[in-house]
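Two folds, back to back.
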Amino acid sequence: FERGFIDPAVKYTIDGIKDEHGQIIKETSLKYLMQQLPDFENEKTLLHYHGEKLGCIIYNSPKCTPEVAGEGIEYDWGVSKIWYRIQDTELKRNKT
């Protein structure tokens, strides 16, 4: 809507609306419209964006495949939880 790809006056569905012959009108399919966005495939995630701002390099495994990620992520979560627990309570309550 904000980018001009969707007309608020048109009704859209995930897969598209069928015409009187039963054919799907692909211009009313939200899936089809998302595939037409040139930057959708190359858009950075917030993790990558903030990581680059901090000068970090983020390596990702494929989505929904935790078995490929290995034990590194489990270690990182464990270390971050320990670090958080040893912080002073006042530091946790103030977001400054």
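---
second:
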Amino acid sequence: LTSAVARDDMVFMAIKMLHLHESFCSDLKPSHVDIGYHYTRPENMDRIRTDGLMTHAERTAQSVGALHNGSVFGDGVYTGNNPFAFKSFGEAGLV
């Protein structure tokens, strides 16, 4: 299995997000944050770390192979706001 994202990386991301939120608030910019969860197979994680999440069209254009779970709502990167609802799409969860 591919290793998970390091705890230090998650802490760094959370701190950066909080600082940006404070900056947006002080600049009177919209500052609402939604968290999205995306599930995938562990074997996709190295490529996601390198290239990020990609639509089917983007993967095709760049010749990136990945198992396609479908596109009921059209081509895109699917996320949900419930961390448990879509675990059937893969064992690796991304925030």
